[in-house]
Amino acid sequence: MPFQFANVDGRASLVHDQSYFDLERVTNGDFTSNPMDAIGRYQELGAVSLGLEASDADGVLSPSSLGPPVPAPQKVFGVGLNYKAHVEETGSDLPEFPVVFTKYPTCLNSAFGEVELRCDTGDYEAELVVVIGSHARDVEAANVWDHIAGFTCGQDISDRQLQRAARPPQFALGKSRDTYGPLGPTIVSLDSFADPTDLAISCDINGERRQDSRTSQMIFDIPFLVSYLSTILTLTPGDLIFTGTPAGVAAPTGNFLRPGDEIRTEIEGVGVMVNRCR
Question: Residue 256 belongs to what domain range?
Answer without folding.
Answer: 76-276
